[in-house]
Amino acid sequence: MRDVSVKEIEGVVGEMCMDANYNLGEDVVDAIKKAKEREESPTGRAILEDILRNIEIGKKEKLAICQDTGFAVYFVELGEDVRIVDGHYMDAFIEGTRKGYTDGYLRKSIVSDPVLARVNTKDNTPPIVYTNIVPGDKIKITMCPKGGGAENMAEVRMLTAAHGIEGVKKFVIERVEKSGGNPCPPVVVGVGIGGTFEKCAMLAKMALIRHPLGSHNPDKRFAEVEEELLEKINNLGIGPMGLGGRTTALAVHIETYPCHIATMPVAVNINCHAARHKTRVI
């Protein structure tokens, strides 16, 4: 059994909040650079150039690359041989998020009541923490700041087996087309298929943090669907920031899970071009 202090987790979480918002992953930057070279629209190329310039400024000046610094979402793989000491597990993420968003001068975007009294919590807490117990004595944390504009474009549909893969593809393309420029394209499209209503939504969100960007589902059948969807989405003509062009999406990632014989849940979750996420292992 290995002891890990809540304070250690808190410190790592705080650093991740700032790092994720200041420094876009090189895999995403490379994808945007390649997209700029391929883009046929002069307006689209100019927008992608501005995006790349903005990314460099954020990295150099330690400034958020987008004013929407997102809901702090954490995916945690907690080793079953880890014992949390000196406090409570969730407090580490709450206090780490509070410190990271305060010390990093990151916008606070969370309201305490979703409907009746939308009062800002003023420190971007509480975060959302998904924990999976795994073998070992390590803690792997992936932090994903999820902006509201792209999150508003998410959708779950309860399809059935009769819809087949063509029904899935039709839904994904419709969802992206309906989203237009709202999620600040070029986007990353996460698709979850299977499980239950909430499981497929989780799969779609986890698809967004696949690394490196553009890597394929290990199942060749779904890898081919990812490629087909990416091509069709980029043929929609939405383009960078919705102003036309051939670069609407940087990647389509599909994750799947077994499901009930009577169901075929499908979820689409979209990330803007600031596809932010950082991973640390304690």
Helix content: 25-40%
Instruction: Kindly estimate the percentage of residues that lie in beta strands according to DSSP.
Output: 15-25%
Helical element count? Answer: 8
Spatial strand arrangement across the major sheet: 4-2-5-10
Describe this structure in words.
With 282 residues, the protein is of the alpha/beta class. Helices cover 40% and strands 24% of the residues. Helix 1 (6-22) runs parallel beside helix 4 and helix 6 (164-179) runs parallel beside helix 8 (220-234). It folds into 2 domains: 2-20 and 65-146, no CATH class; 149-275, no CATH class. The strands form 3 sheets. It has a 4-stranded mixed sheet with strand order 4-2-5-10. The chain is built from 8 helices and 10 strands.
Briefly characterize the structure.
By secondary structure, this protein is of the alpha/beta class.
SSE arrangement:
Elements: E1 2-5, H1 6-22, H2 26-38, H3 42-61, E2 71-79, E3 82-85, H4 89-103, E4 128-134, E5 139-146, H5 148-151, E6 155-159, H6 164-179, E7 187-195, H7 197-208, H8 220-234, E8 249-259, E9 264-271, E10 278-281
Parallel strand pairs: 1-3, 2-4, 7-8
Antiparallel strand pairs: 2-5, 5-10, 6-9, 7-9
Helix pairs in contact: 1-4, 2-3, 6-8
